[in-house]
Design a protein that fits this description.
The model has no long low-confidence stretch (mean pLDDT 85). The protein has one domain. With 129 residues, it is mostly helical. Helix 3 packs antiparallel against helix 4 and helix 3 packs antiparallel against helix 5. It is elongated. Helix content is 83%, strand content 0%.
């Protein structure tokens, strides 16, 4: 009687991606940089551009909100003694909050201009292949 010794291996792309993701966590920085594919680099550049703009806008908005809150506190806590200072503080706080969106747009535009050459180079390389 003939025995059929066969080795079976089932490949899972999802499992391989998970293994690679875990491996990348433990690689030294130099090796991580080498292993970045062009698509991953493109995604990271795009994410960095948007994240920078978001952080600036949030910072401006939070500072404006804190200034506005200070003005409200001055008006409510000290009533007539700090009424004018509270109103001025509130106006500056509202202006700070209103500046958050324009700051976001301006920083996003500047960051896109800065990252554009590399992003266009990567997209050209990826679309050619």
């Amino acid at each position: 009687m003939e025995e059929n010794n066969v080795f079976e291996y089932k490949y899972s792309a999802k499992q391989q991606e998970e293994v690679d993701a875990i491996k990348k966590k433990y690689l030294p920085q130099e090796e991580k940089a080498k292993e970045l594919s062009k698509l991953e680099e493109l995604k990271q550049l795009d994410k960095r551009v948007e994240m920078t703009a978001t952080l600036w806008a949030v910072a401006v908005g939070v500072i404006g909100t804190l200034i506005f809150g200070t003005g409200m506190s001055l008006i409510m806590a000290f009533e007539t003694a700090m009424y004018v200072a509270g109103i001025l503080s509130g106006i500056f706080g509202i202006a700070g909050m209103a500046l958050a969106l324009p700051v976001y747009r301006r920083v996003l535009k500047k960051q896109r201009e800065k990252a554009a050459p590399r992003i266009l180079e990567l997209t050209e390389e990826l679309t050619r292949n």
